[in-house]
Amino acid sequence: MPGTIVESIYGKLRGQQQGNVIVWKGIPYAKPPTGNRRFRAPQPPEPWSEVREALLFGPSAIQASNGIMEFLENRADNTSEDCLYLNVWSPAADNHRRPVMVWIHGGAFTTGAGSSKTYDGSSFATEGDVVVVTFNYRLGALGFLHLGGIGGADFSGSCNCGILDQLAALQWVQDNIEKFGGDPDRVTVFGESAGAMSIGVLMAIPKAKGLFQQAILQSGAAANVLSSSIAEKVSSRLLAALNIGHGEVDKIREIPAQQLVDTAALLPAMSLVPVIEGDLLPVHPEQALAKGIAKDMPVLIGTNKDEYRLFSFFDPRWKQGDQEEIISIFEHTFGLNWLGISQYLLNGEELNQNIYDKLMTMSLFTFPALELAELQAKQGAPVWMYRFDWETPVFGGELKACHSLELPFVWNTLSKEGTERLTGNSEERHKLAEEIHHSWIRFARSGNPNAPKLPEWRAYNLEHRPVMIFNRENVLVHDPNSEERKKWKNLMVHLEKSR
Fold first, then answer.
1. Domains in the chain and their CATH numbers?
2. Is 417 tagged catalytic?
3. Which of 181, 198, 290, 312 has its CA 20 to 30 A from that of 67?
4. How far apart are the C-alpha atoms of 449 and 316, rounded to whole Å?
5. Are 198 and 115 contacting, i.e. CB atoms less than 8 angstroms apart?
6. Among 232, 307, 374, 406, which one carries the catalytic annotation?
7. Span 175-216, pLDDT tens digits
8. Is position 80 annotated as part of the catalytic site?
9. Mutual angle of helices 482-498 and 338-345, in 10-degree steps
10. Other C-beta atoms within 10 Å of 492: how many?
11. Pairing relation of β-strands 98-104 and 182-192?
12. Rounded Cα gap, residues 190 and 100, in angstroms
């Protein structure tokens, strides 16, 4: 069909007209990271001479199955080590130079895919006249295993292959998006969970300068990285499980990818994440932000009120209610910090799931988001904060405003099959989705999320700390996490002093 063929710098691509939107799927943005290219930085794809059909999503990154991701309708059915593909939604392949929104999917750096039906860019393209890009990147051991210290120069940078993939995808956008009707000088990266944590890293990477101008971080910030020494301990543990000695690291390139993924799945959660190492990420992201590396970048950042409930709800240990086991959960999770946390934050009340959820939500999501907002606000950067408080009615309301619940609202994909398993099917959902969706569009277009149907949304500042609360009625509240924020900040100081 005329208008669906675009000439990228690597060759022609044929997309598909879907209503008022053209979609191109499964576009390679790098060579397959297989064989000798495993654990190496991505390389530009081979050009092609014929028109390439871009009608089907490329394979997702190879990954272990995950029940929670399946519940969220983020199944990765077609997986492969050959996964570096992206997708584009655009109103038209013309010269209108529309704002571009590039999505980085979540999944704890070990699961997920840019092809999830929740991440359908059609509504952004039609409602906002923007171009949307989603992509896959290497996950788990293949994306974040630190082998440089053990395997030498041949494995240098292996610990950040997933981040290097993200940079390669963003570079592809710079080189090609104008042909798809987008403006390479107006790129907003947005992502959720590990996707938002990736953005916190990208904001701090000197090499990422100029690849995007704005950022939206949903339930993730700039705190989730490992030091090189801790990452090396993780890799030593995995190599031992694979029966690979330190002098024979090369063997890891020959192990079947699925075996590598399945073995790595036995590691504790969040063991394979970006690593502070080398020229790519020389210092902790928060340290780079404190020095002003992203001081001119508009940022929209927020969390969900009950983030961790998604994970604890499906953990059978809480259903049994055995106090001894509950205490052991707290002790195992917080380790050496548990004594300080229990003495400082708790008033001797009996430990339960609600307390655990609050502590985990604060430590993993709310506090890091507040830290990033503070760091940016201190630089005079434009920052807007939100909190998603709408509670889903499913499972008798037990999931509350859990992690990932905002996704179909942001994308305006509530009508996608299976979404009601997470959100229920009440009519009120659509009003909230329209309000959030249009706020994200406004931010992509102008760097400011204020939209007609919202109360005035003032930029975040350290005096009043305004936060937009998204719920059945949206309200701007000053410092809604005041008590937890102060307690947690004091606790962090206390723990640092005790080390």
1. 5-321+354-482 (3.40.50.1820)
2. no
3. 198
4. 40
5. no
6. 307
7. 999 999 999 999 999 999 999 999 999 999 999 999 999 999
8. no
9. 140
10. 15
11. parallel
12. 10
Q: Which of 116, 122, 123, 193 is catalytic?
A: 193
Angle of helix 323-334 versus helix 353-361 axis, rounded to 10 = 10
| Annotation says 307 is catalytic | yes
Helix, coil or strand: residue 487:
helix
Tens of pLDDT along 260-315?
999 999 998 899 999 999 899 999 999 999 999 999 999 999 999 999 999 999 88
% helix, strand, coil for the chain, step of 5 = 40, 15, 40
Nearest Cα neighbor of 163 from 189, 144, 183 is 144
How many contiguous H segments (helices) and E segments (strands) does the chain have? 19, 16
For the segment 389-417, what is each residue's pLDDT rounded down to a tens digit?
999 999 999 999 999 999 999 999 999 98
Residue holding tokens 């940078």?
157
Beta bridge partners of 23: 16, 89
| Residue 248 exposed, middle or buried by CB count within 10 Å (0-12, 13-18, 19+) | exposed
Q: pLDDT higher for 67 or 173?
A: 173
Write out the two tokens for 330. 């707290």
